[in-house]
Amino acid sequence: MDKYRLKRINDWLWEIPKTQEMKVPGRIFADSRLIKEMDDKVMEQVSNVAALPGIQKASLAMPDAHWGYGFPIGGVGAFDSEEDGIISVGGVGFDINCGVRTLKTDLLRSDVESKITKLADILFGIVPAGLGSRGRITLTGTEVNKVLIEGSNWAVKKGYGQKEDLEYTEEKGKVVGADPKNVSELALRREQKQVGTLGSGNHYLEIQYIDEIYDKEVASVFGLEKNQILITIHCGSRALGHQIGTDYLKTLAKASRKYNIPIRERELVCAPIKSEEGKRYFSACSCAVNYAFANRQVLTHLVRDGFSQVLPKANLSVLYDIGHNTCKVEEHKVGGKLKKLYVHRKGATRAFGPGRTELPKSYQEVGQPVIIGGTMGTSSYILVGTEKGEKESFASVCHGAGRTMSRKKAKKTWRGDELIMDLKSKGIIIRAHSYPGLAEEAPGAYKDVQEVVEVVHCAGLAKKVVRMRPLACIKG
After folding, report:
1. Domain boundaries, the chain
2. Catalytic residues
3. Is the dihedral of CA 256, 261, 266, 269 positive or negative?
């Protein structure tokens, strides 16, 4: 860590000073304990990203940051296309638009506690999950293209949800510029029966209750109250996004050489935003973003179906849906000038402050809901974006707790069946398709989400609104 000459700016921010190769400094949001626990690889990757052409202000890492592919997971980089800015697979990740959708209900904890086991069993049966899981929907070639272009809008038109759901989805569930012609045949084949599936790894479906309210005013605007039941869905673009990432690694590797882009790590292969290669990748990436939106929309329909079987009068509405593996075109001020930037968020969540017209009208006065998932044994949070966050981090925050242990080591440390019993003793019902997969996601394999969120809150990137505790969790 010393070799990066890390400089403490304040209790919540550290800086890697700009070197000759770096275009901007590196900045890491963390307290002193989290910064000590971070792998040196995080510092290295933040520095490498800071050397990429067209990067603005700083290469950033959030308090949940850990080593990733090219960019650290929890890394943020904003690039200006007018200043030779680039676009990178490593800055988005392979599970494109992996994200979270939280549903709010008109139920309280007391309404569901006696039914929580039945709810978990029904949802476990209804929601396809696990490695290589297949959904109920098989798409024809024409339908595949519609999903990639229309996103959640396609799902709602098909009857998988309500029109109001779109208002409370980032980008209203559809980004522009998606062209299926830029997606390989292999990627298209791999996704034909995965819309409406949860997947494996750290993806989950969780029934939660609000146990703490930090900001009553914002909570009221979001329609949240103490002991209210919420449901959070965490998943992404499945095999489609992974194949797009794999395909374009080769394309951008050639582009890096073609355009003589200096990269300090081969995993940072990239292309100029304005190049044909860059445009094709961004278009393909947009297809996967839309697919992930559609996926979470169909899962919302399945969750409503499951709840209706146990609590037929329950009303489930979308609080918000937001991605955390994306490259988005956004306007931000740099040096007092408003610029159109390509903001890469790799395991980082967008967190717009008040006044942004991109937000639903009912949220514009207070800011965007920011959903931070914890672990199945701890807690999750809803925050709200701030003006300071827009200035300091291109409106970006953490996306979860962040791993401290590899999946391989976690499997050697915990057993899935023992975890289920341990969490049951704490009042948390777990349903999983794989014991080894469950062990990989043991709460002890992650940082303390409370500490991670506290850094974001104290740094002013976003403000805490409520905390949720898990009652039941469905895993792949």
Report:
1. 2-404+446-475
2. 399
3. negative
In a 13 Å sphere around the CA of 61, the CA atoms on its Cβ side amount to 35
Cα separation, 295 vs 196, in Å, equals 5
Name 235's bridge partners.
99
For the question of whether the overall pTM of this predicted structure is more than 0.90, the answer is yes
pLDDT of residue 210: 98
Exposed (0-12), middle (13-18) or buried (19+): which is 412, by Cβ within 10 Å? exposed
- 370 has which bridge partners? 383
Give CA–CA dist 326/341, Å, rounded.
Answer: 13
263 and 22 Cβ atoms separated by less than 8 Å: no
49 CB neighbour count, 10 Å cutoff: 32
Q: Name the residue type at position 261.
A: I
Query: Would you say residue 138 has pLDDT above 70?
Result: no
Instruction: Give the integer Cα–Cα distance in Å for 85 and 77.
Output: 10
List strands edge to edge, sheet with 325-334: 7-10, 13-16, 26-29, 59-66, 73-80, 337-346, 325-334
Residues forming a β-bridge with 470: 208
CATH placement of domain 2-404+446-475: 3.90.1860.10
The position carrying tokens 């590899």 is: 406
Q: What is the pLDDT of residues 161-185, one digit of tens each?
A: 999 999 999 999 999 999 999 999 9
Range with the poorest average pLDDT among 126-140, 263-277, 301-315, 363-377:
126-140
Nearest to 474 by CA among 231, 163, 142, 110: 231
Give the per-residue pLDDT at 128.
78
Q: Has residue 220 got a pLDDT over 90? A: yes
Distance (Å) of CA 444 to CA 376, 380, 413: 10, 15, 9
Position 2 scores a pLDDT of 67
159 Cβ contact list (under 8 Å, min separation 6): 301
Q: Could you give the count of Cα atoms lying within 13 Å of 42 in the half-sphere of its Cβ?
A: 29
**How far is residue 197's CA from residue 132's CA, in Å, rounded to a whole number?**
9
Are 410 and 452 within 8 A, CB to CB? Answer: no
59 forms bridges with which residues in the sheet? 26
The mean pLDDT of 73-81, rounded to a whole number, is: 97
Strand partners, 280: none
**Tens of pLDDT, residues 18-35:** 998 999 999 999 999 999
Write out the two tokens for 334.
């740099």
The CA distance from 389 to 360, in Å, is: 19
Residue 64 in contact with residue 202, Cβ under 8 Å?
Answer: no
Q: Which H or E run includes 339?
A: strand 337-346
